Each structure stands twice: as structure tokens, then as C-alpha cells.
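Figure 6 in text form: structure in, sequence out.
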């Protein structure tokens, strides 16, 4: 686990999305709000190439690509910079 900001929203770094991540919003079926919630409320772990990751499960109970799934897991890959958090990409899993 990696230390991360805690507390209320006072002094919390803004979350910015790369063009790459934004290009996958529809294709992978996540929302900006889900990614922000995952980053703000989940434990962070180290990822490849000096990046960070976390994940959060959301109730889904909807159809995705022709099949109904109960849960959607959002797994953002991001970097923490001095003044902001930059989301590089987001993986979405349905189960």
C-alpha cells in the first residue's frame, strides 16, 4: 500500500485525465465520477513504470456487451504529481 492524501476535500489534489484515458470512457464503460471516487476512497498500490493503481467495485446490474453483470470494477492507473493526480488509463472489469 502507498500513502495517499486523507481527510476532507481541503487540500486534496485535483484529478486530471490524459487524452488516452478520456478516449476509453465509452469503450470501457466507466465514468469520470467513478474513477475519481475510486482514487479518493480506495487504497493505492504501486503499478508498473512508477505509476499507482487502485480499484473499486460498483453495483452494476446492467447489460454490457450483451450480458448482464452484477458488478463493475474500476481500476485506474495514475501518477501523483506535486499539484495534481494524472489518470493515465482506466481498466474496467464486469462480473
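Output sequence:
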Amino acid at each position: 500500500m502507498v500513502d495517499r492524501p486523507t481527510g476532507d476535500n481541503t487540500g486534496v489534489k485535483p484529478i486530471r485525465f490524459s487524452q488516452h484515458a478520456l478516449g476509453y470512457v465509452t469503450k470501457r464503460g466507466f465514468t469520470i465520477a467513478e474513477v475519481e471516487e475510486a482514487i479518493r476512497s480506495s487504497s493505492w498500490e504501486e503499478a508498473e513504470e512508477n505509476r499507482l493503481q487502485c480499484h473499486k467495485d460498483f453495483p452494476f446490474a446492467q447489460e454490457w456487451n450483451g450480458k448482464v453483470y452484477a458488478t463493475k470494477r474500476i481500476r485506474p492507473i495514475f501518477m501523483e504529481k506535486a499539484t495534481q493526480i494524472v489518470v493515465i488509463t482506466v481498466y474496467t472489469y464486469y462480473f
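Caption detail: DSSP finds three helices and six strands in the chain.
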